[in-house]
Protein 1
Amino acid sequence: MGLPQIIIEFKKLAETLITRSERGIVAIIVRDNSNVRTSYSYSNESEVIKSHFTTNNLSYLHLAFLGSPSKVLVERIGTEDTLDAVLERLKIKKWNYLTMPDATSNEATALADFVIEQRDTYHKTFKLVAANTASNHEGVINFTTAEIKVESKTYTTAGFCPRIAGVLAGMPVNRSATYYALPEVDSIEESASPDADIDNGQLILINDGTKIKIARGVNSLTTITDAKSDDFKKIKIIEAVDMIRDDIRTTFEDDFVGKTENSYDNKIVFLAAVNKYFRDLASQGVLYDQFDNKAEIDIEGNREWLSLHKDVSTWDDEKIKTANTGTNVFVKANIQVQDAIEDLKFNVYME
């Protein structure tokens, strides 16, 4: 395998990242005894057989499809099924946003714990939209607006989560959910302190006097650390990072693992391809074009692994960088995702 092949693959991924990002997958867990099947996959709403679901569950599916996701997966909890069994099925499927519109508070917490574990331990790019679930994590969107009236039906906070999940799954990575309008919504229970709610990691709806819209596209993360900057609070940023992570991991697994020796030259081949991918993403407006988005060998990662096998205390960085690391490839990257315009300060002076 040579350098041109891998660069071509990454180039295709960069060119299609924006269009791929607006075709995400929603997974919905419903309680329903209308049919014996446990799992469904729909590409559009017309495929749904109405007799398979209750009226309420059909309305949840309709809400999800309003956001134009590429697919809606439905997992049913019947009389002989459990949430744990559903999560076992979901962990091996491909999806982006999970929601359970009639989840109890305990079930919402269990779903959040599941998504956080899948992200932090297994590096899955799953995300959850849940009602009133303050998880302080970038993988959980804490939706808190209540009394959402759509024509003659009033949705609870949890019941409207499929609509939010569908919106986020259908959102291209070059735009933010901030001020995304929901034209079907007639009224909401308005927050008395929207700024504080947003700062507390709540995704809320607001009424600007003419339309109901998402106030700001934030997840539930509120605690900032050295590893998680303020950018990690933004759904748009996390979505881009997740897609980039998936692209790099999938390409590495498909085109490198088991197919080439772990030489220093081949590590450089892989890094050259990733850095070309980053440059293409910058030209697409996904990464910030005035930042040196760059992947490189993680010297500290190399040193830590090597020190488990030999004394490297006298080795300089160059020797560590080019050393044989067995089957392991230790790399790191520093990137800046391009954010969307959301705030304006416009001073007007009159003479």
Note: The domain at 23-170+179-214 is CATH 3.40.50 (Rossmann fold).
Protein 2
Amino acid sequence: MLQGKRVVLRAIESEDLPQYVRWFADTDMLQYFGFYYPMNLDQETNWYEGQNQDPDRINFAVDHEDQHIGGGGFASLDRRNRNGEVGLFIGEKSLWGQGLGQDILTTLVEYGFDYLNLHRVFLRVFAENARAVRAYEKVGFVMPNGDMVAGITCSL
């Protein structure tokens, strides 16, 4: 379990999966997930079991005030070159815009540098997702060349 200022990152449990099904059936949630599509419970269960077997992926459930609100973690971990891609989402739309994403990202980045011993953490974001871009910049991420293009990559 990882403790942020306002969030807790914990292991994803099978009991959490119906929440993911609900969140990822919402078009507002899927707007910035690129090619992501809604999944049923069987598909989420297959994802859950598969991600637990992938050594290059670490995922967490995110709780706020004892409520499961989203997820975050690392994909494409390259332990040899000590870098990885970080990602997060808040599924509970009533909590959007309250700074929780910034807290989740800060907690993940600290875990990446301090525990996973990474030297580089990066993420991808759609340029039109201004709320996310602002949160990422507050954590210290920068965009290469300062270009604002769809699918930008930010590094820390």
Note: The first strand starts at residue 2 and ends at 3.
